[in-house]
């Protein structure tokens, strides 16, 4: 097929390939991509399940992972990577140490998918996608709810 493919094709393909890379890399360390994202959010500050859900809502479209944030949180609590107290979750020392190690692996993935792009090309893609999202009704405040 030599016809120019539409934006949606490339978005879904790239998203799928990124998910595959993350899954393969993080699974070896007993964590899912969503759990890694939870750890990142909790590294910034403790949060309730609702706050975490709002911050991660765009990512719960993957059929390969539990669709319930509760499942991810339960697994992270069980592993000792996060703690739950009075309805709020926080990262533990063990979770912080694991996040540092996982972040090194994630950085390698990011370097791989951006290896043929200079910084301005990558920035232009991200800025363009943000503009498209805004044109379709997305507002940055939606990520902070």
Automatic annotation (TrEMBL):
SUPFAM superfamilies, A to Z: Winged helix' DNA-binding domain (SSF46785)
Highest classification ranks of the organism: Bacteria, Bacillati, Actinomycetota, Actinomycetes, Micrococcales
Note the InterPro entries from the entry. Answer: WH-like_DNA-bd_sf, WH_DNA-bd_sf
Q: What is this protein called?
A: MarR family transcriptional regulator
Which species is the source of this protein?
Answer: Glutamicibacter arilaitensis (strain DSM 16368 / CIP 108037 / IAM 15318 / JCM 13566 / NCIMB 14258 / Re117) (Arthrobacter arilaitensis)
